[in-house]
Design a protein that fits this description.
single chain; 297 residues; alpha+beta; YojJ-like (1; 2 domains; eight-stranded mixed beta sheet; elongated
Length: 297
């Protein structure tokens, strides 16, 4: 036993700062891979890959040569197969890679806090008014991931995010009411924009095109998307592929300020550590919102 502890002590003494940094970086990488796959259909595919690896080990131990031959050929082209199977997930990762990893560090430093409050208040007030009249709306608030390609699908406005202006855009006789509004840098940047629809097969089937576009936008970027149903007037919020519903003007304003000030992990204190804590913490309270309830748009 004494030799065991002496060996452990020698090992610890041999650890350098580079080793510590290496361990931390690898741990963070593994955590983000797990967090990314946990709530996506890719997680099921990963389970299948793990089962194949386990079967390969069993075949090696028991000498099942036919299965060994088959699995060996499968693993030789395994990387190509995985790339094809995980193509939607890999694309989502690459699209977010530019800004998502450092979002916790710089947060929304490019915007002043009063700009954030003004945007949150204007969007919340507009959404509440649209909800009362059951007017459909789709409002995208850009964060770190730039949405220039989507801006090109609509018309650039570049105006103050006035709630009355937002409501006028989504008036059912207005020419731009069918598209989405994109808010960039604290200003109403464009309207009439076309958003990508989510291809997630696990989404509630009763959700309409507007809600699917909101989820798809949040899956492919770090944007915060507000959607108002034209059927029931329900206000929903899509962030990182999750749709929460049942907001009022006040609860939506508070939630938007939370997301736009410190990102999705504002409760955990922001920054990288905050992001990690937020992943393991329970889901944030949605202030009366219901997660992905059934509703037709």
């Amino acid at each position: 036993m004494q030799e065991f502890f002496a060996g452990c002590l020698r090992t610890i003494q041999m650890i350098s700062i580079a080793d510590v940094i290496d361990i931390i970086v690898v741990s963070i990488l593994i955590f983000y891979i797990y967090a990314f796959l946990r709530d996506r259909r890719a997680g099921r595919l990963v389970l299948g890959v793990v089962l194949l690896i386990a079967l390969k080990i069993i075949c090696d131990l028991t000498g099942m040569y036919v299965m060994q031959f088959l699995l060996q050929n499968v693993f030789q082209v395994g990387l190509i197969i995985i790339a094809i199977i995980f193509q939607p997930e890999l694309r989502s990762v690459l699209e977010k890679m530019g800004g998502q990893p450092i979002k916790g560090i710089k947060s929304i430093a490019s915007q002043k806090r009063d700009d954030v409050a003004r945007v949150a208040e204007s969007v919340a007030e507009a959404a509440a008014g649209l909800s009362e009249t059951k007017t459909g709306a789709l409002i995208v608030i850009e964060r770190d991931t730039k949405l220039g390609d989507l801006v090109l699908t609509g018309s650039v406005i570049d105006a103050e995010p006035n709630p009355y202006l937002i409501r006028n855009i989504f008036y059912d006789k207005a020419p731009l009411h069918d598209g989405a509004v994109i808010i960039r840098g604290g200003r109403l940047h464009a309207a009439g924009c076309v958003l990508p629809l989510s291809v997630n097969p696990d989404i509630v089937k009763d959700l309409g095109t507007r809600h699917r576009a909101a989820i798809g936008m949040s899956e492919n970027s770090d944007a915060v998307v507000v959607v108002v149903s034209e059927e029931t007037g329900t206000i929903s919020l899509a962030v990182e592929g999750d749709l929460t519903r049942g907001y009022t003007g006040e609860t939506l304003r508070r939630k938007l300020e939370s997301y736009l000030t410190n990102g999705s992990d504002s409760r955990a204190g922001g920054g990288l550590i905050g992001r990690i804590r937020a992943k393991f913490a329970k889901k944030d309270e949605t202030d009366g919102a219901e997660s992905e309830g059934k509703e037709s748009d």
